[in-house]
Specification:
- There is one protein chain.
- The chain is an all-alpha fold.
- The chain has 2 domains: 5-67, no CATH class; 77-213.
- 79% of the residues lie in helices and 0% in strands.
- The protein has helices at residues 5-16, 22-42, 48-59, 62-72, 77-104, 108-118, 121-143, 148-170, 185-213.
- Helix 1 (5-16) packs antiparallel against helix 2, helix 5 (77-104) packs parallel to helix 8 and helix 8 packs antiparallel against helix 9.
- The longest helix is centred in the last third of the chain and has 29 residues, at 185-213.
- 17% of the residues are buried.
Length: 214
């Protein structure tokens, strides 16, 4: 029976040593174990041996954790990263295409769709925020504590089209009038705030996913 945090980490290292991100996983589990151990000792008054018994029941044995990570190798980080990047790019291209068609092509159904979408900007923002929550949660659930680097890389790559569009509008490469119904001061302020909190929201969802993966 594992009676200390150090013994748990040593056994976990033996099981994970063949994985490419072994050291990162160990650092994450060290932090996670320390937090839980401190809570159980300080709040519940348990000895380390008793606390580790509860932690093993919660986390699982090192062998079980390693088996889970090896199973998740079938879902490659690269595949998941490009899946989310592609979905975000699809949103971006769809929005740009609709904007161009609305301003250059006099199709009635395009005008109707444009008017509907520009009348619900808050709902569109909430749906887009949900996309980033889903991104963080899925990475955390599939890759556990070793998925932080993947989350960061996926986030930054996915954000590139958004930033490019902002620059194109700011430097008037794209006519500002094309986005007239949306470019109100309040909407611009909301977009700035949402962009700033995208990563914290994704990271919070990622941490939730890591808990679900245990």
């Amino acid at each position: 029976m594992i009676q200390s945090k150090q013994a748990y980490l040593e056994e976990l290292h033996k099981e994970l040593k063949k994985l490419p991100n072994c050291e990162e996983l160990l650092r994450e589990y060290d932090l996670h174990l320390s937090e839980m151990l401190a809570d159980l000792i300080e709040i519940e008054g348990l000895e380390e041996k008793e606390a580790m018994g509860k932690i093993v029941l919660r986390f699982g044995a090192p062998k079980d954790i390693a088996a889970c990570y090896k199973e998740n190798l079938d879902i490659t980080p690269t595949k998941m990263k490009w899946t989310f990047i592609s979905v975000n790019l699809f949103f971006f291209i769809s929005g740009i295409s609709l904007t161009v068609m609305y301003n250059l092509l006099p199709f009635p159904f395009i005008s109707i769709l444009w008017n509907i979408l520009t009348s619900i900007p808050t709902l569109l923002i909430l749906l887009y925020m949900f996309f980033w929550v889903l991104l963080g949660y899925e990475i955390g659930k599939e890759f556990g504590l070793g998925g932080r680097k993947l989350l960061r890389n996926t986030f930054y790559f996915s954000l590139i089209p958004n930033l490019v569009l902002m620059l194109l509008v700011i430097f008037r490469v794209v006519p500002e009038s094309w986005f007239g119904p949306l470019l109100t001061p309040s909407f611009i302020a909301i977009c700035i705030v949402c962009t700033l909190i995208l990563f914290p929201i994704s990271y919070a969802a990622y941490r939730w996913g890591t808990i679900r993966s245990i």
